[in-house]
C-alpha cells in the first residue's frame, strides 16, 4: 500500500516539475530579431520545487488526509430540498422570466461597456441554446458547431457586399443557408456515432474556416470582409450609424438627437435580446412537441426508437438542421455587431467554448445554459489581468464541475405531465 | 381457421463462417400466440432480428399479409405493424413512464412544426388524444401511479410491463416478445400471461414469443416452433411438442 502510494507520489511530483518548469520556469525574451531563453527568477523556481514537494506528500498521505478531511467540516453542499426546488421546470421558468426582466432594464442602467459585454453574452446564449438541441437533447456530439456560425456570418457579409441586401433580408437567408449546410453535412455524417461523429464535425468546422481563409477572391481571405454602414441593422429603416449614404435616414437625424454611439450599442443589445427570446420560445415549444421527445428518446436508445417505427436518420437530421440554423442566425447577428468578419473569429476554440457552456449548464437545461454563458463570457472579461491563465482556469472550472456537480450547474427535471387534462 | 398474417420461408442468416439461422420457416396465423423455443444460442433472437429488420437476412422470404418485407430497414417494418421488445429491457430510462408511451406514438401524432410552434387546435387535439391513449394503457398494465416516474427507477417487472404498453402505443398487428418472462417472479409471470391473453383477445394482436419458461409457453401458445442450432427441429401444438422425442433430446441431451 505504502510502496504503491510512494510510486504515485513520486510520479506526481515529477509531473508537476515536468509541466511547470517549461511553462513558468523558462522565459522567452526578444533580443533584436531573435528569441532567447532565460531561466525565471529563483523565487519562481523555488515555488515550483515547493509545489512538487507538496504534491509528493499530498499523494503519499492522501488516504490518511482523506480520513481527516471527512471529520473536518465539509464544503457546504446545496441542500437536497433546495436543489430539488431549483431544478423544477416551473421554478426555472420563473427564474428565466426574472432574468429577462433584468435584461430588459440592463441597457438603461449599465455602462456602454457593460451593455456591449451583455450583447456578447446573448450571442453565446443563442449559440448555447442551438448546440443544446444537437448535443444536449439529441445526444450528437458536434465539435464543429462554429462552422455553421461562420456560415451564417459570411452569408450576411457576402450577400450585403455583393448583392446589397440589408440585414433584415439577410438574417432569415443566413439561417436558411446554415440550415442547408447542416442538412447536407448531416446526411453522410449522421451514420457515425459518438467519437467518430465528433471527429468528423470537428473537421467540418475547420474546413469551413480554412475554405473561407483561402477563397481570397470572394471572401477577402484573412482580411475578411467588412459590412458597409448602409447594410447594418436598421430600426424600421432608420440607421444607427454616424455616416451613411444620402438616401439612408439615420435614427439621430429623424428624431433630432445629436449622434451618440450609445444608441447603437443599446439597439444591438435589444436586437440580440429579441433573438434570444425568440430562440427560447422556439426551444421551449420544440421540447414539448413530438419531435423534441423523439430527440431525447433517440439520445437514450436508438435501437428502441427504430423498433418503435421512428426513423433515426430523419430525427437526427432535424436536430442537426435546426441547431445549425440557430447558429446561422447568431452568426449573422455577430457579423452585424462586429461590422467585419474574418476567418479567425471562427476557430475551434469557439466551438469548445460553446460546448463548455452546454456541458457546464447541464445538458438540456435552458436556464443552466443562460447561467453558464454568463459565467463563461463574464469570467474572462472580469479577470483580464489573468488572461494568460484563461485556458488554465477553464480547465480548473471543468474539473471542479465534474467533481461538484457532474450533472451541470442547473439541470432540469422532467416536466410533470398530467394524465387527465 | 384464420388466415396467415406472417409467413417466413427458407430464412437464413450467415455471419461470416457461422450459419446462425438455417432454413427457418414460420407461418403465424392472425390472433394466435406462437412461441419459438430452443436451447440457448439456438438462433431464436437472430430470427427475431431478421424479422424486424435489425439484420438483413442472407436469404429467405418474409411476407407480412402477403407483402415481402425482407431487407426493409427496422423502422419501416415497425410502421407496418411488426413491433418487438428486447431481451434486455430497452426503455428510455431518463424519460418518465408516460413520456415513453408518448414517444412511441410519434408516427400517429401531428408532427408539423408550425402546428406545434403555434399550438394550433389540431395539434392540441392530437396531443390530448395521445395522452388519453397513454393513460389508458398505463391503467391496463397497472402503472398509472408511476406515470411521472423516470422509467429507469421502476421495478424490473414494471419496466417489462411498461415496455409492452409502449409497443401497444404503435397499434401493432404483430407483437414480438423476446423472453418477456425472464427475471419475473411467479406472480408477475401469471400477470404477464393474463396480459398476453388480453392483447390477443381484446386488441386483436398476434403475439410471437421467445421464451424459456416452459410452463408459460405450454399454457398460452397456440403453436410452437422449436429451433436447435439454427435449424428448425419441430413444430406443432403444445401437446405435440411435449411428446416429440427430438425436442426432449435437444433439451436434455443424448441419453
CATH topology assignment of the largest domain in chain A = ABC transporter involved in vitamin B12 uptake, BtuC
Pick out the low-confidence regions of chain B.
none
First-residue to last-residue Cα separation of chain A: 62 Å
Cα gyration radius of chain B (Å): 19 Å
- Strand tally of chain B is 10
Distance from N terminus to C terminus of chain B (CA atoms, Å) equals 39 Å
| Weakly predicted, low-confidence segments of chain A | none
Structural class of chain B: alpha/beta
Q: Which structural class matches the secondary elements of chain A?
A: mainly alpha
Main β-sheet description of chain B: 6 strands, mixed
How much of the sequence of chain A is in beta strands? 5-15%
Mean pLDDT, all residues of chain A: 85
CATH C-level class of the domain at 1-74 and 209-255 in chain B:
Alpha Beta
Report on the structure:
The complex is a heterodimer of chains A (421) and B (255). Chain A has 421 residues and is mainly alpha-helical. Chain A has 2 domains: 2-71, no CATH class; 84-404, ABC transporter involved in vitamin B12 uptake, BtuC, CATH 1.10.3470. Chain A contains 18 helices and 7 strands. Chain A has helices spanning 2-25, 42-60, 62-71, 80-87, 89-109, 112-137, 145-163, 167-189, 194-214, 216-219, 251-255, 261-287, 290-300, 302-307, 312-338, 348-361, 366-382, 390-404; strands at 26-31, 34-39, 225-226, 234-235, 238-239, 249-250, 340-341. In chain A, the strands form 3 sheets. Chain A has a 3-stranded mixed sheet with strand order 4-5-6. In chain A, strands 1-2 form a two-stranded antiparallel sheet. In chain A, strand 1 (26-31) and strand 2 (34-39) form a beta hairpin. In chain A, helix 1 (2-25) packs antiparallel against helix 2 (42-60), helix 5 runs antiparallel to helix 12 (261-287) and helix 12 (261-287) runs antiparallel to helix 15. Chain B has 255 residues and is an alpha/beta fold. In chain B, the strands form 2 sheets. In chain B, strands 6-7-8-3-9-10 form a 6-stranded mixed sheet, with helices on both faces. Chain B has a 4-stranded antiparallel sheet with strand order 2-1-4-5, with helices on one face. In chain B, helix 3 crosses helix 5 (121-140) and helix 3 (97-104) packs parallel to helix 6. Chain B is globular. The mean pLDDT of chain B is 89. Chain A binds chain B through residues 282, 285-286, 288-291, 293-294, 296-297, 300-301, 303-312, 414, 416-417, 419-421, and chain B through 52, 54, 73-75, 78-79, 83-86, 90-96, 98-100, 102-107, 109-111, 113, 116-117, 119, 128, 131, 134-135, 138, 144, 147-148, 150, 166-167, 169-170. Chain B: Pfam families: ABC_tran, BCA_ABC_TP_C. Chain B: Belongs to the ABC transporter superfamily.
Amino acid at each position: 500500500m505504502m510502496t504503491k502510494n510512494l510510486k504515485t507520489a513520486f510520479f506526481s511530483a515529477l509531473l508537476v516539475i515536468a509541466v511547470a518548469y517549461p511553462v513558468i520556469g523558462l522565459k522567452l525574451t526578444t533580443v533584436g530579431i531573435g528569441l532567447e531563453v532565460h531561466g525565471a527568477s529563483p523565487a519562481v523556481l523555488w515555488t515550483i520545487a515547493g509545489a512538487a514537494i507538496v504534491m509528493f506528500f499530498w499523494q503519499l498521505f492522501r488516504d490518511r488526509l482523506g480520513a481527516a478531511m471527512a471529520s473536518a467540516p465539509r464544503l457546504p453542499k446545496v441542500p437536497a430540498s433546495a436543489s430539488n426546488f431549483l431544478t423544477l421546470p416551473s421554478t426555472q421558468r420563473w427564474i428565466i422570466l426574472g432574468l429577462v426582466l433584468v435584461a430588459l432594464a440592463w441597457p438603461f442602467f449599465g455602462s456602454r461597456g457593460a451593455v456591449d459585454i451583455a450583447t456578447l453574452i446573448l450571442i453565446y446564449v443563442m449559440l448555447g441554446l442551438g448546440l443544446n438541441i444537437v448535443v444536449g437533447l439529441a445526444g450528437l456530439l458536434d465539435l464543429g458547431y462554429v462552422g455553421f456560425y461562420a456560415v451564417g456570418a459570411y452569408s450576411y457579409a457576402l450577400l450585403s457586399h455583393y448583392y446589397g441586401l440589408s440585414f433584415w433580408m439577410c438574417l432569415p437567408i443566413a439561417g436558411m443557408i446554415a440550415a442547408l449546410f447542416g442538412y447536407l453535412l448531416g446526411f453522410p455524417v449522421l451514420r457515425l456515432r459518438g467519437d467518430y461523429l465528433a471527429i468528423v464535425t470537428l473537421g467540418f468546422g475547420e474546413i469551413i474556416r480554412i475554405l473561407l481563409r483561402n477563397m481570397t477572391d470572394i471572401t477577402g481571405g484573412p482580411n475578411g470582409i467588412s459590412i458597409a454602414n448602409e447594410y447594418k441593422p436598421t430600426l424600421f429603416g432608420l440607421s444607427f450609424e454616424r455616416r451613411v449614404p444620402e438616401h439612408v435616414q439615420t435614427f439621430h437625424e429623424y428624431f433630432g438627437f445629436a449622434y451618440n454611439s450609445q444608441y447603437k450599442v443599446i439597439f444591438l443589445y435589444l436586437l440580440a435580446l429579441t433573438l434570444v427570446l425568440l430562440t427560447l420560445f422556439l426551444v421551449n415549444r420544440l421540447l414539448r412537441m413530438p419531435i423534441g421527445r423523439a430527440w431525447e428518446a433517440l439520445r437514450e436508445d436508438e435501437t428502441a426508437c427504430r423498433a418503435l417505427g421512428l426513423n433515426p436518420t430523419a430525427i437526427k437530421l432535424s436536430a442537426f438542421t435546426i441547431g445549425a440554423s440557430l447558429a446561422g442566425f447568431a452568426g449573422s447577428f455577430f457579423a452585424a455587431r462586429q461590422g467585419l468578419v474574418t476567418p479567425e473569429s471562427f476557430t475551434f476554440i469557439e466551438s469548445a467554448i460553446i460546448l463548455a457552456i452546454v456541458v457546464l449548464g447541464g445538458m438540456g437545461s435552458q436556464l443552466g445554459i443562460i447561467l453558464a454563458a454568463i459565467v463563461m463570457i463574464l469570467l474572462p472579461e472580469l479577470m483580464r489581468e489573468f488572461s494568460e491563465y484563461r485556458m488554465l482556469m477553464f480547465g480548473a472550472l471543468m474539473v471542479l464541475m465534474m467533481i461538484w456537480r457532474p450533472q451541470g450547474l442547473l439541470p432540469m427535471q422532467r416536466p410533470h405531465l398530467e394524465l387527465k387534462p | 381457421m384464420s388466415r396467415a398474417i406472417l409467413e417466413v420461408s427458407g430464412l437464413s442468416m450467415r455471419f461470416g463462417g457461422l450459419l446462425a439461422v438455417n432454413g427457418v420457416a414460420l407461418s403465424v396465423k392472425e390472433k394466435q400466440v406462437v412461441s419459438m423455443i430452443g436451447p440457448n444460442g439456438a438462433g431464436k433472437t437472430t430470427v427475431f432480428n431478421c424479422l424486424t429488420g435489425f439484420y438483413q437476412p442472407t436469404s429467405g422470404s418474409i411476407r407480412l399479409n402477403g407483402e415481402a418485407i425482407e431487407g426493409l430497414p427496422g423502422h419501416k417494418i415497425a410502421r407496418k405493424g411488426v413491433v418487438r421488445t428486447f431481451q434486455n429491457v430497452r426503455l428510455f430510462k431518463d424519460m418518465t413512464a408516460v413520456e415513453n408511451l408518448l414517444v412511441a406514438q410519434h408516427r400517429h401524432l401531428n408532427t408539423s412544426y408550425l402546428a406545434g410552434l403555434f399550438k394550433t387546435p389540431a395539434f392540441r387535439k392530437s396531443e390530448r388524444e395521445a395522452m388519453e391513449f397513454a393513460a389508458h394503457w398505463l391503467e391496463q398494465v397497472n402503472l398509472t401511479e408511476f406515470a411521472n416516474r423516470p422509467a429507469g427507477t421502476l421495478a424490473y417487472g414494471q419496466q417489462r410491463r411498461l415496455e409492452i404498453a409502449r409497443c401497444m402505443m404503435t397499434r401493432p398487428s404483430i407483437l414480438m416478445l423476446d423472453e418477456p418472462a425472464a427475471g419475473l417472479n411467479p406472480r408477475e409471470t401469471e400477470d404477464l400471461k393474463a396480459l398476453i391473453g388480453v392483447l390477443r383477445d381484446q386488441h386483436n394482436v398476434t403475439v410471437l414469443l421467445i421464451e424459456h419458461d416452459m410452463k408459460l409457453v405450454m399454457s398460452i401458445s397456440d403453436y410452437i416452433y422449436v429451433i436447435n442450432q439454427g435449424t428448425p427441429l419441430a413444430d406443432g401444438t403444445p401437446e405435440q411438442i411435449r411428446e416429440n422425442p427430438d425436442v426432449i433430446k435437444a433439451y436434455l441431451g443424448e441419453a
